Fold:
Amino acid sequence: MQITDARHTVNHMVHHQARLDTTFAALADVTRRGVLEQLRHADASISDLAQRFEMTLTGMKKHVTVLERAGLVITEKVGRVRTCRLGTHQLEEEAAWIARHQELWSARFDALDEMVEHLKHKEKTDVRNKRT
Amino acid sequence: MQITDARHTVNHMVHHQARLDTTFAALADVTRRGVLEQLRHADASISDLAQRFEMTLTGMKKHVTVLERAGLVITEKVGRVRTCRLGTHQLEEEAAWIARHQELWSARFDALDEMVEHLKHKEKTDVRNKRT
Structure:
């Protein structure tokens, strides 16, 4: 691998990890998940969202900024109203990370099950051998 | 719905949301995700993990505590060594939340596409009608 290729790969990995950090952090809040659920149905202004979640405008603005940085929400100001809609981030990398964890989790526990079965079988055989 | 049922449902929802908060926050860190990736292959002591991630013992302990609270890691102290292994939390609710977001995201964007197509078609027809 050439140095430029290696540097590109490292850069890509760092960005990938930073994106996962930002997205998972954005999802780690019940209000922010609620805002996304709301925007799946219809666009909404920040004041609509503040009202719906019984929150100050400033509090809601902060949540929307976190979602915007994660690419989960896009906002647009028309006149005095800032409208929020779903961003283009489809959570593909996050879904893939979780799926991979689940897959390897199962593999790991299957291996442990097998080991337990093997030990049980061995114990039975040992007992039988002692009897004979 | 009886009051006890309703209370049960509300409790369930609050717990569900709190669990999502805790898990997504636990996943929002590159070292913690790295620890989980490591434990998918083999159990490890906290000092093994600290060494591998070039971190102080105290720093690693903090990360492991966050993972433990989220049910993603189980630790067991034997003598002076605390061993970490994968917890029983399989991230099912988190995967379901993301899958639902992706599904409704697509539905919302399909609806927008359809609206754009409809407007394009309408424009064409209008132009044609004006010409005749």
Observations:
- The longest strand of chain B covers residues 73-78.
- Residues 92-131 of chain B form the longest helix (40 residues).
- Residues 90-131 of chain B form one domain.
- Chain B is about 75% helix and 10% strand.
